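Intended use. Records like the one below are meant for learning the mapping from a protein sequence to its folded structure. Do not use them to infer anything beyond what is encoded.
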Amino acid sequence: MRPKLTFLKSPITVISQTELIEEIQQQAQGKDSCLTIGYLNPHAVNLCYKDDEFTKALWSFDIVHCDGVGVERYAKMLGLPALYRYTGPDWCVSLFEELNTADNKAAIYLLGDEKNVLSKAIREIQRSYAYLTVEGHHGFFDHSPESIENQKVLESINDSTATILMVGMGMPVQEKWIMNNKDSLRNINAVICVGAFFGHIAGVNYRAPGWMRRLGFEWLGRFLHNPVKYGRRYLLGNSLFLYRVKKYATKKAYNAEG
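Structure written out for the chain above:
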């Protein structure tokens, strides 16, 4: 298993998109263990300072890849090696492309989002990837581990043919759900946090233009498109993230000089 490094209070894994997809493909072919995959961006880093259960969940994952440009750019300042950054809407599509073969044995279960969004996402995947078997369940149910609704969702997943589970409930709900329920998943070999990916593939979520994404300004595109929704997260959240990075780096430099 790849080692996890520490970014402030959060875990991070140095792994490329190609390597991650290869590990998922290997797991999906029938390995006994269940690979759990999360992602780290400035929002997640900030959450780790105020939500201990989320932090515990993130550290319980096998892989936590870099999803945010802030994490990528400031890794060196914290003494970390260079990171590979990629986002769910990009790398998950690449995963589908790799799995879309006649001899593919992997089936996918989508868990999360609103019912109509999820239905659109499933139809789009089935239309675009003929060899993929896709099932799913919306994310609006009682997530409490012992609730009747949660047990029914687990039964639905276990009764399916799926070997890959994608959980798109948003952060920090999806991470906590995976931590609390992964041991109850009988046939799943890989569980992946995907955030708002279902909305993207369904065509209902806005994405910044390609040039903004390539330059690392996808967050700015989201903010400009919907400042009311993203103002607190990106303006206040990014400023807080930068303050925490600078504070840690300054303290580290001072201790090194002493």
